Structures are given as structure tokens and as C-alpha cells.
Amino acid sequence: MLDELRSLRSLVFPPACLGCGDSGAIICVHCQKLFATAPTRSQVDHLPLLISAKYQERTAGIVLAAKEAGSATAKAALASALLGPLEQLLSSGTAEKVALLPMPSRASANRRRGYDHSAKLAQAARDLIAPRWPSVQFDVVPIFRHNRRVRDQTGLTPKERGENLHQAFSLDPGQFLRLAGQDLLLLDDVVTTGATVREGVRALKLANLEPLAVIAACASPRYFPLR
Ligand SMILES: [Zn+2]
Known about the structure:
Layout: H1 2-12, H2 29-36, E1 40-44, E2 47-54, H3 57-67, H4 72-81, H5 83-91, E3 97-102, H6 107-113, H7 117-129, E4 137-140, E5 144-146, H8 158-164, E6 169-171, H9 173-176, E7 183-191, H10 195-205, E8 213-219
Helix pairs in contact: 3-4, 4-7
Bound molecules: zinc ion.
């Protein structure tokens, strides 16, 4: 919808980049490149984290447009941002069956948006990666459920984020059998404090499951080595 309005508007005004606001393109070449760099390898606690881009003002603009404004261009940019980290991980292993586990959005956010942003993003990433790795079977498994209501993490301190999500997830019994014999990858658009990832790892551990890594389009600067 946003993109349709933008294209109508662009008949009169050139579009403004979702990342930097410069006129000329929905996402300008400079902002496209923020996601196109070689993936960064980091970790959340001891779990490998592979990231496409740093979460800063410009990438945040694109994430917000994908998540809250339903921009198809921004959604496509995030899905392709997951491709580099996914490929790097696959190149370093011998995975045959991979389950992509989207970190869940709050139920109220899904209702407001009219769709499940995380699950859609994981499906879009799967559709991009699957033809490139025909020897690997990819499955998107929305395994995580909220046990209780949680607050929007935006604006919370790292400590509050941890408390907000403390024991907040459980595994969906209806999806559980789909995980058998698969390598598990946690998938998220943004990793900020790692609270969501930690909660996902905890919920999996109760079922004796351990993810291989976390794949994210963006992560906060703390996950990037100092240069
Ligand atoms: Zn831009």
C-alpha cells in the first residue's frame, strides 16, 4: 500500500529514500549498500550471530518501513539482507535440513499490522535462499509462542527488556515435530540487546534443543567489532 501511494506520489514528487530521506529512489543505492556488505560474525552469549548490517538511523528507517508501514520494497531489502548471513553459515557447515525459526512478534503488533512480520520475513528469506542451495531442505517453523502479554521492547532499557521477556516464550506443540532432525536457525530482523534471542534459546533448551546460530538483518553496534 505504502509503495503504491509512493509510486502515485512519485508522478508529482520524486520518492524519498526510506533510509536517508534523499530524493530519487524508495531505497537509494547508498542505503542498499548498507545491507550488501559482507556479513559480520558476532555472538549473543556463546551463540554465533551472523549479521548483514549495523542497526543505525538509516537501516532503522528501512526496518520501520517494512514492519510498521508495510513497504514491500523495505520488506524485500530485509529479506535479501538475510541472504548473505545465511549463505555464510551454510558454506561453513554440512547442513541438509534447516529450520528457520522466526522470533515472534507480539500478538497485538500482528493484529495491528494485519500480518505476522517475522514469519513473513522468514518465508521471504527461505524463498530467496532455497533455489540457491538445492541440496538443502529449508523449512520455516513458527515454533515460538508468547506465554503471556509482553510490552513493546522499544524504549525499554536492556534490563527491562530482559525482564519483559523473562520466560515469555514457549514452544508450539503443534509445530514441535517439524523440528526433528533439522539444524535450527533463529531468524530476526534486528538484534538489539539479545533479550529475544536469549528467551528463544531458553525455551528451546527446555525441550533439549539447541539452535546452531542466529541470523539477523541488523544488529546494534555492540555486536560489531571495533575497527
Ligand atoms: Zn538512502
